[in-house]
Design goal:
This protein has 127 residues and is an alpha+beta fold. The chain has one domain. The protein is 43% helix and 20% strand. A 5-stranded antiparallel beta sheet has the order 1-5-4-3-2, with helices on both faces. β3 and β4 form a beta hairpin. The chain is globular, with a radius of gyration of 17 Å. The N and C termini lie far apart (54 Å). The relative contact order is 0.20.
Length: 127
């Protein structure tokens, strides 16, 4: 049984693809409800989960669909402030990660470990 995954993608390559999709008319915005809902239903995307992930990772995110008939076809959430993007994929659709994907994952992991260092407080020990 296939299951969905949310994966990080290279933000800079994503922004190039986003501009190209906008130029060719294959970018679907939430403001186009008929196209948006048709794509979400066809690809069985859980918008609530995706929005929740984006909000927890970035503090705020923007959803967008690229309907390009390429490996970049899909549902994304991204943040300009964090310069990061996430993609919803089914395991059967996943490709092997390339160098850019590995670098994006490494950057995200490093950012999270840095964030974590400042969020925990050490409680005083009373003897």
């Amino acid at each position: 049984m296939a299951r969905a995954r949310i994966i990080p993608v290279d933000y800079y390559e994503f922004t190039k693809r986003l501009r190209k999709a906008a130029d060719t008319g294959t970018r679907i915005e939430k403001s186009e409800p008929e196209k948006w809902q048709a794509y979400v239903d066809e690809h069985k995307i859980n918008e609530i989960a995706m929005h929740s992930w984006g909000r927890s990772k970035f503090g705020g995110s923007t959803p967008v669909i690229l309907n390009t008939d390429s490996e970049w076809d899909g549902y994304y959430v991204y943040s300009k402030d964090e310069e990061a993007a996430l993609k919803w994929v089914w395991e059967g659709e996943m490709k092997k990660p390339d160098a850019a994907d590995k670098e994006a994952a490494r950057h995200d992991r490093d950012r999270r470990s840095t964030d974590r260092a400042f969020t925990y407080e050490i409680a005083p020990v009373n003897y």
